[in-house]
Design goal:
By secondary structure, the chain is of the alpha/beta class. It has 3 domains: 84 residues; 58 residues; 211 residues, P-loop containing nucleotide triphosphate hydrolases (Rossmann fold, 3-Layer(aba) Sandwich). A 6-stranded mixed β-sheet has the order 9-10-11-7-12-13, sandwiched between helices. Strands 6-5-8 form a 3-stranded antiparallel β-sheet, with no helix packed on it. Strand 5 and strand 6 form a beta hairpin. Helix 1 packs antiparallel against helix 2, helix 5 packs antiparallel against helix 6 and helix 9 crosses helix 10. Bound molecules: adenosine-5'-triphosphate (ATP) and magnesium ion. The site of adenosine-5'-triphosphate has 11 residues, from helix 7. The site of magnesium ion (MG) has 3 residues, from helix 7.
Length: 452
């Protein structure tokens, strides 16, 4: 019940009690008047009436004063409560680090861990939710369910609860089926059996009245799939003494050497502006080195995912039409299947893309990229509009796929799931980090002076 509803109820209860006071007062004087008749002189009676009228007016004015005071108090309390709420220490934050780097995410996570007020956060980073949250609210079938603990605990508790719910559901359904069968078979049999059937009918009705356990609605898990591409002999992409700067006096990379092949599973990390996206553009050939050489295998197919791809979509066109125009000469069914593989099915394929959510648009992009059957995937912040389950699906698809991958992401968990190497972009160099991403996270914490 909201604060204002409670307050309104209190107001009416007190008003009602005060209203009762006046009729009771009148009744008291009327009875006194009745019993005094004949016992006192008429002048005393007149005096009494006068007193009664005086008392009534005083009571009435008291009542009106009370109402007035109450109304004024109500207004003051409401104003105070509004002011109070407007400054209330609730912070609502949504997808907080879309463009932050790992360092900023670590700092934010540590700061929010120590934040002593109420924080409501919407995030797709499981790692962050584990670090910061003490309660999880799950939205499903237009209902909210609150779980205590961080994200991992929520997954565990929800799993246990759903398992129990499913057991209970199956047990109830079995009972109901048995009872219905008995009623159908013996309801019109001998008197004794019919009586038992009637009793089962009552039990059944009672069970239904009490509310039956609902079947567990499983989350729709999207299964991403990339087509296997076979092998190309290494090195498929070679950087030799590459230097690059957007302007000659401001080099982002100086004499970098490395190779990427189809077994590579690399996560590029580094602060904002370090040059991660620039390195990916050098890999694809969108940018050319100022010095040195980038050699690509003649048959290498590279696909790059970045958030700006979605901005380039013609939003008035449906996803299906977009795919048909990008890959002409293919049957509609084939294109439908290609988009469907990324979880966009039915009407969502034929409505203008402006009506799709950001996550759905990302899926169209993934479908478009995957259809090119790349051997090397360059993913620049691919998780920004994907929910946790979809991120897991992406990780699974990448792990099952046989191509090479270079990933830029602020999602520690995704990096942990798919990357075998961590490369740090900083100080005009690309250096291999000796350790996994969780070690790197500890390093960032230590650097920021926030080690546990
Ligand atoms: N088109 C451009 N022209 C000139 N300078 C650019 C251009 N694009 C990027 N830069 C500069 O190059 C540097 C590296 O940019 P880049 O986008 O590669 O960084 P990043 O590591 O991807 O950063 P973020 O984590 O913010 O995505 C930045 O200082 C940026 O200002
Ligand atoms: Mg970038």
């Amino acid at each position: 019940m909201s604060f204002f509803v409670k307050y309104a109820l209190l107001f009416f209860v007190i008003s009602f009690m005060t209203f009762l006071y006046l009729p009771l007062l009148c009744l008291y004087y009327a009875l006194s008047f009745y019993f005094m008749r004949g016992h006192v002189s008429s002048s005393t009676m007149m005096q009494y009436c006068h007193d009664w009228l005086g008392m009534f007016l005083v009571s009435l004015s008291n009542f009106l004063c009370f109402k007035l005071t109450f109304a004024v108090c109500s207004i003051i309390i409401i104003i105070i409560s509004r002011l109070h709420f407007s400054d209330y220490p609730i912070h609502i934050s949504t997808n907080y680090c879309l463009f932050a780097d790992l360092e900023a995410c670590v700092w934010l996570e540590e700061s929010l861990k120590k934040f002593e007020r109420i924080l409501v956060v919407i995030s797709h980073s499981q790692d962050f939710l584990n670090g910061v949250c003490t309660n999880i609210i799950h939205m499903q079938s237009k209902k909210l369910k609150i779980y205590t603990g961080n994200y991992d605990q929520y997954v565990q508790t929800r799993g246990d609860l759903e398992e129990n719910q499913m057991k209970q559901y199956k047990w109830e359904q079995e009972q109901i089926a048995n009872m219905k069968e008995y009623i159908a078979r013996f309801g019109h049999g001998s008197a004794k059996l019919a009586r038992q059937a009637q009793s089962k009918e009552k039990t059944l009705a009672k069970m239904e009245r009490g509310g039956l356990t609902e079947k567990v609605v499983r989350d729709q898990v999207l299964v991403f799939r990339f087509t296997d591409v076979g092998k190309l002999p290494p090195p498929v992409l070679q950087f030799s003494e590459v230097s690059f700067g957007y302007t000659p006096e401001n080099l982002i990379y100086k004499n970098i050497d490395f190779g990427v092949d189809l077994d590579s599973r690399i996560a590029l990390v580094g602060p904002n502006g370090a040059g991660k996206s620039t390195l990916l553009k050098l890999m694809t050939g969108d940018l050319f080195p100022s010095d040195g050489m980038v050699k690509r295998h003649n048959h290498l197919r590279i696909a790059q995912y970045h958030q700006h791809l979605a901005e380039k979509l013609d939003l008035d066109v449906p996803a299906l039409q977009f795919m048909m125009s990008e890959y002409p000469g293919n049957e509609e069914e084939k294109m439908r299947a290609a988009i469907g593989r990324f979880g966009l099915t039915g009407k969502a394929q034929v409505m203008p893309m402006k009506n799709l959510s950001d996550g759905q648009k990302s899926r169209v992009i993934f479908a478009w990229l995957a259809y090119r059957q790349p051997q090397l995937l360059l993913l620049d912040e691919p998780t920004n509009h994907l929910d946790i389950e979809t991120i897991d699906s992406l990780a699974e698809a990448l792990n099952e796929w046989d191509g090479g991958m270079v990933l830029v992401s602020h999602d520690f968990r995704l990096i942990n799931q798919v990357a075998h190497e961590i490369w740090v972009c900083a100080d005009q160099k690309v250096t291999r980090w000796e350790g996994d991403i969780m070690d790197f996270k500890k390093h960032l914490k230590a650097k920021a002076g926030i080690l546990d």
